[in-house]
Amino acid sequence: MAQKPNLKCVSTVTAVEVEATAEAKKGNAAQYITLPALYLKVRNRALEDLHNLVGAMFFQVDDVFFEYAQKASNSEDHDACLATMRELRLLRKGLERKLYQHVARLFKELPNPTSELNKPTIKAISSLDELSLVQDDELEETVAIESMISRASDSNLDVLSQLTQRLDALTMNVTVTSATNPLSPKHLCEAFQEASSDLRCDIKYKLIVYKLFERYVLKNFNRIADNSNYQLAKAGVLADLKNTPKKLVKTTTISASKAQANKAQAQAQNAQSTGAQVASAFFEQMQELMASIRGVSSGAAGVSVSNQVIGSVLPSATPIKQDELVNVLSGIQSSQPPTETQSDTDWVSNIAVREMLANFLRERESKKGPEKVEEVDADLINLVSMLFDFILDDKCLP
Which of 9, 202, 299, 344 has its CA 20 to 30 A from that of 161? Predict the structure, then answer.
């Protein structure tokens, strides 16, 4: 039987950390397992990556359950969703702590041949009578967990195989298999199930929590495995395995408050950008339309359509300043009689804004020289005038 390589040749790290196990069952001497610093470094990095992914999951919990509450068909389901959301907030810290402690305990037990992790176990229901004792909720939860494990394992066969081989080469006294690998989807799912045991919500809401764990943690499991494989390969542990990662994969996450602020800011920026693009495209289309009829005066069905240049047409004409234009238009508006004094609303369509503005410019031409309204402002005035002409011509409108 081939002997495993000496750990001193596997890693260039000279410092070691000694972790003591319980007294050996065979013999009454205390047994000590010496672990290379590389093993502990891999464990710490894996726990950090797991912490980041679980944090991303919990950041979505409130939104998911609030959305379910909004879609609830009755008040009972609505209240149950909100109650589950509040319960998860209260239990989050404890749940995370149990999860990380479970995974850390597996890393501690792996090098010890006498640990429970390294003992072969067979779980089976021996009889139909025993099967009937399993509650529906428990059976449904078990099926959900097994399905999550199966999907995650099938999706990560290569990286799991690499990680198992490297951990096997790193640990001296045991043979590491897919069943004993502390980072296997099986152990992560069972650790999360155990950590979630304090949740007292209905099974259908607990299954939603499991689905979130699958979506945000298990579907990103390759990041945890890739980082562990990279660290081991970089230190010289089976560095020649095919498809070994070339760099660390980022699994960093941000705080909930900062992420929420960033999310809101991004949504606002996207909405603002989209609105600006739509407005810009619409404005360009309107400019092209108004330019195509600039200088034209015609009529259809008794409605006048005019987009003539307002002011002087001489090339030397200077555009009137915008603040002066606003003052002139305000003066034209204030000079009109109030609506309630008129028995007929036809007077509204007879306010010849273009003509009155042109007359004003002609009157002060001797002092200011030839002036005109800029094309953009003229288009806006003409567009509003045309809009009111069409509205007032429609006899169906009150």
Answer: 9
